[in-house]
Write a structure and sequence with these properties.
Distance between the termini: 49 Å
CATH superfamily of the largest domain: NAD(P)-binding Rossmann-like Domain
Order of helices and strands: EHEHHEEHEHEEHEHHHHH
Bound molecules: nicotinamide-adenine-dinucleotide
Number of helices: 11
Strand content: 5-15%
Number of domains: 2
CATH class of the largest domain: Alpha Beta
CATH topology of the largest domain: Rossmann fold
Radius of gyration: 20 Å
Length: about 280
């Protein structure tokens, strides 16, 4: 696999973060989005990320300029033709992703690896849109991409050993630690994390302790850097609820029942930081 040229589709929060770490690792990046405005926002976020490092003294201005110059932007897929690996990081919508992946598999070289950064859609289902689905895989980054060390590498039913090996080698090249996971709802980290958050909401709902005490309990008692309720506010309560609903539906096991208080909060528009109110107030 030609690891020196990476294509990224979607220049949002995740796509721009992935572009930043790839450019920092010395790779050439083609970043694609639907509009120049979206690309400009992505590049501005990347430049701000590098700028913080320059201010801290961990990156020189010359190195920053060199890294930024490795990222080319475009609104069409032709710029992805030379990529050895292309990562789809567009909006979380099944129909949209299927359309992008079909188009990608017609554009990129037949041996190129095609990956998706989806956090909830089945990798096996997405693979069906790709010609030669054995070259398709999930590469699930964590937010914020430049700071988080992990990527989950998710094999769909059709994914080949060679593709899994290439995806893991790619993750290491950009300084991430890959864990290999079989396709399943929520993969591994969200499968463990999100039910824990849901349980914290149950505990709050039962009045066992205040939100502050629940979070302090998990921070001081388990050494977690952030409490589960504060983390729910950061992720977005609507997202937490959506993931629990996927688990409940896909596994059919009552242990994944979303906490009634979580549903209430979402119905009330208390979504966490993004709506300025969740388990805590951010006014
Ligand atoms: P975002 O809304 O910040 O960015 C999505 C980008 O996709 C936008 O810039 C949008 O213009 C672009 N886009 C939409 N349609 C497109 C198309 N046809 N072609 C090219 N670009 C298109 O979303 P995000 O948070 O960056 O999430 C992107 C993906 O990463 C989703 O699949 C999400 O589930 C996944 N993910 C998100 C997180 C997170 O914490 N935000 C974590 C892990 C994975």
């Amino acid at each position: 696999m030609n690891l020196t040229h990476v294509g990224i589709v979607g220049a949002g929060q995740m796509g721009s973060g992935i572009a930043q770490v790839c450019a920092a690792a010395g790779l050439d990046v083609s970043l694609v989005d639907v509009s120049d405005a979206a690309l400009d926002r992505g590049i501005a976020a990347i430049a701000a990320g590098f700028e913080r490092q320059v201010k801290k003294g961990t990156l020189s201005a010359d190195a920053q300029a060199a890294m930024l110059s490795r990222i080319r932007t475009a609104t069409d897929h032709r710029s992805l033709e030379g990529s050895g690996i292309v990562i789809e990081a567009a909006t979380e919508n099944l129909e949209l992703k299927l359309r992008i992946l079909k188009q990608l598999s017609e554009t990129v070289a037949p041996h190129a690896v095609i990956a998706s950064n989806t956090s909830s859609i089945s990798i096996t289902q997405l693979a069906a849109a790709v010609t030669a689905p054995e070259r398709f895989i999930g590469i699930h980054f964590f937010n914020p991409v430049p700071l988080m060390g992990l990527v989950e590498v998710i094999r769909g039913l059709q994914t080949s050993d060679a593709t899994a090996a290439s995806a893991q080698a790619f993750a290491k090249t950009i300084g991430k630690t890959p864990v290999l996971v079989r396709n399943s709802p929520g993969f591994v980290v969200n499968r463990i994390l999100v039910p824990m958050i849901n349980e914290a909401v149950m505990v709050l709902q039962e009045g066992l302790a205040t939100a502050e005490d629940i979070d302090n309990g998990m921070k001081l008692g388990c050494n977690h850097p952030i409490g589960p309720l504060a983390l729910a506010d950061l992720i977005g309560l609507d997202t937490v609820l959506a993931i629990m609903q996927v688990f409940a539906e896909e596994f059919g096991d009552p242990k994944y029942r979303p906490a009634p208080l979580l549903k209430e909060m979402v119905c009330a528009g208390r979504l966490g930081r993004k709506s300025k109110r969740g388990f805590y107030s951010y006014e």
